[in-house]
């Protein structure tokens, strides 16, 4: 896709881009469908259950049925809600989540936009979703939704700081924010991948990322046992589906990002294993991260909001800054190239 | 707040071990569940055994049983035979007291527990329905322990 | 200045963490509670009034439905009160069966508490772990008395059913398995740092406050008061068995958690001894008059239910029905401290504290 960038815009190119976008959307929706299925299965297995197994063979159509149900539900808007904002919020949540996928490189030449500020682009756009969540909570005119929305805003803003800071180390080593170059930099054996020299950064990134995703143990905005469902308590049907979709697309995006930034993207763990296509390696690493997220969800209880804030500002941020400092010292002493 | 993480790791190990463990859920609607013999399900009623002593109706804590008798059609015999026997299953709490006091085991429990109905009217069980409910009848009814057997109030 | 105002938030009766149909109206300043008003009665069925028109055997099924998580102890308190009033002898075998089912029930009840409490705090799995093991207890009860929740098992003067073939062995097997299961529970949750940070130092009160509010059970023992009716006023056969009464120190949610976890272990210990000493034969029903008519007078009997001191007060005029029947329900009494504990806490701690008290709404509203 990159090669069209400098050409004049024609109908043909626009059409190609459109087709590409639809292809990504299809991939993402298939992913979300089966991520939800997989999540329910994994959590079920971890709880002596079988997970969904009634709809379709092995329950494979469970999510399809769920979505079909959501689509057929009555579209309710509370009487006292701010109608325009209420309708806008799910759209505003979904659009940036889809836009961030443009910069993800799945392989050396499999990418939509090769931005030189790739990571910043991700952070900037994903911030818009926060606004949508606050908006959704506010416009519902429901106290639980409002509390959920406010919590979400506080949480996502707090955790974006350590998230970005944790990646600075990588940017310093690679001297680039371009995701493709970051992966190319990690070529070679698996100890060239960033997660070893940047182990502190990796830890901070994982914690901050789970928090950004609003998943257990940081799922306070939608803490079921306290706020019933948090910001989307008044949403139903298709609008609710969009919030769900957004959430899982971010799971997809963050898992991709972690793969790219820390686990060497499409690189094989050893040069001898290069005959296996990069996409397979990418998918494997990606699947491990997604499984880890589900595993965490099946095990851990939820933090309290003040502890959550404390963790972000008192633990993760100093750690991330320390990591930057250590990286700088490392580069100064040993030069770049993975130590 | 110090997070050492050892407890979290232990917890993660437990869930990971469970991932491969034997599942405990049952495939219920596909594989029916057999209840133990003592299980208390909807009652079975045998009109021929009933001597219209009215004890079940009297012991019922929720007054869900109503019955009427009529004189025995056989003039040779004394006593009454059952005419109508209605059990309002909407309010029956399956406490087992009616079968406990019944001196002739005319009313006994069954193991049938699938009692959902679409209409409240379906929950009004009459004599014929209860007589036809003759599957999985409880074998051991243990009405020996009844403290108020045969006793009038 | 920005204009700020207090938020009046209605929690319940359909809130997922109020453990039923309980409602609290909280005034929030931000996320901090400045005032909490509990509203109860959504599950009120008038058990005590209904009982005035029922004879004592008929009241037993009603007690099942008070604390439906622990129906066996409820059964026991009623039949025990009547027996004491009439001076009835209960055969040893029946008393053993009663004790075994009550201790099994205590384990089952604490499991429900453990699972739902961790669910309140946000962990999904413990709930299903606890329920899959509780299922075994319910299955044992089902084999014994034909119901899984509303047992109607005990009768004045004995129990309705003798233990079926092999039942005692199955209980023994269960006790053995459960001991290792409890270790797994500890691994899964008890040491979890997030859990500890959530419940340590939350909802603290001292021993004097607990006594002033009439708290009992784990809520009282967590403050360090060693008060367990099984030890202090032994009823049934408890004086025959060795067991410890676990007590806490700080009176916070964490101590209540530890006390309940330890109580499960102690119950298993009692069960082990009771199953070992279980008599070979004997009656399960004592000599009881045809119609149960307690003599004129009144009596108050109390026992230790999983939630605390459950009491039964009967006034008899010599009839088959009680003149007045009153249950002292531990959930109801323990709940009274809630408004005091909630002031100054956050919304999140509301759930932690309410769950820590361990209420059953069927018992609160009765």
TrEMBL record, chain A:
InterPro entries named in the record:
NADH_UbQ_OxRdtase_su1/FPO, NADH_UbQ_OxRdtase_su1_CS
> What does the UniProt entry say about where the protein is found?
Cell membrane; Membrane
Q: What is its main location?
A: membrane
Q: Does the keyword Transmembrane apply?
A: yes
Which reaction is catalysed here? a quinone + NADH + 5 H(+)(in) = a quinol + NAD(+) + 4 H(+)(out)
Transmembrane region positions?
Answer: 14-37, 85-107, 119-138, 159-177, 189-210, 249-269, 275-296, 308-331
Q: Keywords on this record?
A: Cell membrane, Membrane, NAD, Oxidoreductase, Quinone, Translocase, Transmembrane, Transmembrane helix, Ubiquinone
Molecular function via GO: NADH dehydrogenase activity; oxidoreductase activity, acting on NAD(P)H, quinone or similar compound as acceptor; quinone binding
Q: How does it sit in the membrane?
A: Multi-pass membrane protein
Record's subunit section: NDH-1 is composed of 14 different subunits. Subunits NuoA, H, J, K, L, M, N constitute the membrane sector of the complex.
Give the record's family classification: Belongs to the complex I subunit 1 family.
Question: What's the protein name?
Answer: NADH-quinone oxidoreductase subunit H
Gene that codes for this?
nuoH
UniProtKB/TrEMBL annotation, chain B:
What is this protein for, i.e. what is its function? NDH-1 shuttles electrons from NADH, via FMN and iron-sulfur (Fe-S) centers, to quinones in the respiratory chain. The immediate electron acceptor for the enzyme in this species is believed to be ubiquinone. Couples the redox reaction to proton translocation (for every two electrons transferred, four hydrogen ions are translocated across the cytoplasmic membrane), and thus conserves the redox energy in a proton gradient.
Q: According to the UniProt record, what class of enzyme is this?
A: translocase
Q: Which GO molecular function annotations are given, in alphabetical order? A: 4 iron, 4 sulfur cluster binding; iron ion binding; NADH dehydrogenase (quinone) (non-electrogenic) activity; quinone binding
Nucleotide-binding as a keyword?
no
Cross-referenced PROSITE patterns: 4FE4S_FER_1, 4FE4S_FER_2
Q: Could you tell me which residue ranges the 4Fe-4S ferredoxin-type domain spans?
A: 41-70, 83-112
Query: What family does the entry list?
Result: Belongs to the complex I 23 kDa subunit family.
Q: Which InterPro entries does the record associate with it?
A: 4Fe4S_Fe-S-bd, 4Fe4S_Fe_S_CS, NADH_quinone_OxRdtase_chainI
Task: Tell me which Gene3D superfamilies the record gives.
Answer: 3.30.70.3270
Q: What is its main location?
A: membrane
Q: Which residues bind [4Fe-4S] cluster 1?
A: 50, 53, 56, 102
Q: Which cofactor does it need?
A: [4Fe-4S] cluster
Record keywords: 4Fe-4S, Cell membrane, Iron, Iron-sulfur, Membrane, Metal-binding, NAD, Oxidoreductase, Quinone, Translocase, Ubiquinone
- Give binding positions for [4Fe-4S] cluster 2: 60, 92, 95, 98
The protein's name = NADH-quinone oxidoreductase subunit I
Could you tell me the membrane topology recorded for this protein?
A: Peripheral membrane protein
Subunit (UniProt): NDH-1 is composed of 14 different subunits. Subunits NuoA, H, J, K, L, M, N constitute the membrane sector of the complex.
Q: What is its EC number?
A: 7.1.1.-
Which reactions fall under this protein's catalytic activity?
a quinone + NADH + 5 H(+)(in) = a quinol + NAD(+) + 4 H(+)(out)
Describe cofactor binding as the record notes it: Binds 2 [4Fe-4S] clusters per subunit.
Q: Does the keyword 4Fe-4S apply?
A: yes
Q: Which GO terms describe its cellular component?
A: plasma membrane
Automatic annotation (TrEMBL), chain C:
Annotated membrane topology is: Peripheral membrane protein
Which EC numbers does the record give? 7.1.1.-
Compartments annotated for it: namely: Cell membrane
Q: Which domain of life is it from?
A: Bacteria
Its keywords, alphabetically, are: Cell membrane, Membrane, NAD, Quinone, Translocase, Transport
Pinpoint the NADH-quinone oxidoreductase subunit D domain residues.
120-290, 291-365
Look up the record and report any one GO term of the cellular component aspect. Answer: plasma membrane
Q: What class of enzyme is it?
A: translocase
Known catalytic reactions: a quinone + NADH + 5 H(+)(in) = a quinol + NAD(+) + 4 H(+)(out)
The record's annotation in Pfam families points to: Complex1_49kDa (PF00346)
List the Gene Ontology MF annotations in alphabetical order.
NAD binding; NADH dehydrogenase (quinone) (non-electrogenic) activity; quinone binding
Q: Which family does it belong to?
A: Belongs to the complex I 49 kDa subunit family.
Q: Which NCBIfam families match?
A: PRK06075.1, PRK12322.1
Subunit composition and interactions = NDH-1 is composed of 14 different subunits. Subunits NuoB, C, D, E, F, and G constitute the peripheral sector of the complex.
Describe the task this protein carries out. Answer: NDH-1 shuttles electrons from NADH, via FMN and iron-sulfur (Fe-S) centers, to quinones in the respiratory chain. The immediate electron acceptor for the enzyme in this species is believed to be a menaquinone. Couples the redox reaction to proton translocation (for every two electrons transferred, four hydrogen ions are translocated across the cytoplasmic membrane), and thus conserves the redox energy in a proton gradient.
Q: What is this protein called?
A: NADH-quinone oxidoreductase subunit D
Q: Which organism is it from?
A: Cohnella fermenti
